[in-house]
């Protein structure tokens, strides 16, 4: 397992260009081992836009949240932490199956507790590279300042981790697919590697 966990988090009101190219870009990210999460700045979860947000996260093997702009900071933190824990849990579970032939849920409860503790320590120690793709369409422009503040506030608690954290903010314009490919390039670059 890589010591650097790479994530893309798409933050959108769903009005940006979400199309088949977006799905292809998410697939490209997954092929490179990058998790793709999504946060919808939407009034309700049962809209078509919300379904598109959910699909991005599902295809990216990440997590999603639908929130009003006021909760973006908390949502960014929750989505980031949940995604890291899910990814590490999946990796450790895969290794357990290879070594023991059993999943985490199938092993002795006393050993399971130790492994869960290990995953929690790993969550705090692993290096993170995060690209946050922020919607900057006409509707979201008036919310952009609040969004930027949320990203800055996300960095503060992450600085307390033992592992290094590298966060990059990218505009979704002109499309989600374009921004995801730009994020892949950033996350794969030597310049941005956490050491």
Your description of this structure?
This is VWFA domain-containing protein. InterPro entries: VWF_A, vWFA_dom_sf. With 195 residues, the chain is an alpha/beta fold. The chain has one domain (4-188): Rossmann fold (3-Layer(aba) Sandwich). Helix content is 53%, strand content 19%. The protein has seven helices and five strands, in the order E-H-E-H-E-H-H-E-H-H-E-H. It has helices spanning 20-31, 48-59, 72-100, 109-125, 138-141, 144-159, 176-188, and strands at 4-12, 35-41, 61-67, 127-134, 165-171. It has a five-stranded parallel beta sheet with strand order 3-2-1-4-5, with helices on both faces. The longest helix is centred in the middle third of the chain and has 29 residues, at 72-100. The two termini are 16 Å apart. The mean pLDDT is 83.
> How many domain regions?
1
Shape verdict: globular
Query: What level of helicity do the residues show?
Result: 40-55%
CATH topology: Rossmann fold
By CATH reckoning, the class would read Alpha Beta
- Second-tier CATH architecture: 3-Layer(aba) Sandwich
Query: How would you state the average pLDDT, rounded?
Result: 83
The major pleated sheet works out as:
5 strands, parallel
CATH superfamily: von Willebrand factor, type A domain
Poorly predicted regions: none
Beta strands, count: 5
Sheet-strand content, in percent, reads 15-25%
Domain VWFA: 1-96
InterPro entries: VWF_A (IPR002035), vWFA_dom_sf (IPR036465)
Protein name: VWFA domain-containing protein
Organism: Thermoanaerobacter kivui (Acetogenium kivui)
């Amino acid at each position: 397992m890589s010591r650097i966990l790479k994530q893309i988090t798409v933050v959108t009101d769903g009005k940006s260009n979400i199309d088949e190219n977006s799905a292809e870009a998410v697939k490209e990210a997954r092929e490179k081992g990058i998790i793709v999460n999504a946060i919808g700045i939407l009034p309700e979860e049962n809209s078509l836009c919300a379904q598109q947000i959910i699909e991005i996260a599902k295809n990216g093997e990440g997590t999603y949240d639908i929130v009003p702009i006021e909760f973006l900071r908390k949502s960014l933190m929750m989505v980031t932490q949940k995604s890291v824990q899910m990814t590490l849990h999946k990796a450790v579970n895969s290794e357990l199956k290879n070594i023991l032939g059993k999943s985490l849920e199938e092993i002795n409860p006393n050993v399971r507790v130790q492994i869960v503790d290990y995953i929690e320590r790993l969550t705090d120690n692993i290096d993170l590279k995060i690209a946050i793709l922020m919607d900057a369409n006409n509707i979201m422009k008036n919310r952009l300042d609040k969004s930027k503040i949320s990203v800055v506030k996300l960095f503060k608690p992450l600085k307390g981790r033992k592992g290094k954290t590298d966060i990059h903010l990218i505009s979704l314009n002109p499309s989600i697919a374009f921004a995801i490919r730009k994020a892949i390039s950033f996350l794969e670059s030597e310049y941005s590697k956490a050491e």
